[in-house]
């Protein structure tokens, strides 16, 4: 979960930084707790950790909401999630989550996520999915 993703360039930087090679450029990890310390090749470790990682872009500024569709289009971003407290504060309506502008932001983010086959962070995912 990466806070304050407001632009396509920032979303692309997340995708380049968080996954392990060959999907990204995150520093290699050994066979730690996530793999039960099992002996595996580095390629297997990278593939497993990439498959088990979700990249969540937190949209927390009006600029991020305006760019929601373009951010959702970035391959590798799995979930769009609004940081409601930060967004409402940035909008000058702190804590007013039912405000019309906040509702419009939620709707815009939901549309963007759905149009690109991404998960809307406000929606609860069924257990195990």
What attributes does this structure have?
single chain, 129 residues, mainly alpha, TIM Barrel, 6 helices, 3 strands, 41% helix, disordered C terminus
Describe this structure in words.
- The model is unreliable at 125-129 (pLDDT under 50).
- It contains six helices and three strands, in the order ααβααβααβ.
- A three-stranded parallel β-sheet has the order 1-2-3.
- The radius of gyration is 17 Å and the shape is elongated.
- With 129 residues, the protein is mainly alpha-helical.
- The protein has two domains: 1-18 and 54-123, Phosphoenolpyruvate-binding domains (TIM Barrel, Alpha-Beta Barrel); 19-52, no CATH class.
Helices and strands in order:
Elements: H1 8-17, H2 42-51, E1 56-59, H3 62-66, H4 68-72, E2 79-82, H5 84-90, H6 100-115, E3 119-120
Parallel strand pairs: 1-2, 2-3
Indicate the low-confidence ranges by residue numbers: 125-129
Q: Beta-strand level of the residues, as a percent range?
A: 5-15%
The total beta strand count reads: 3
Radius of gyration: 17 Å
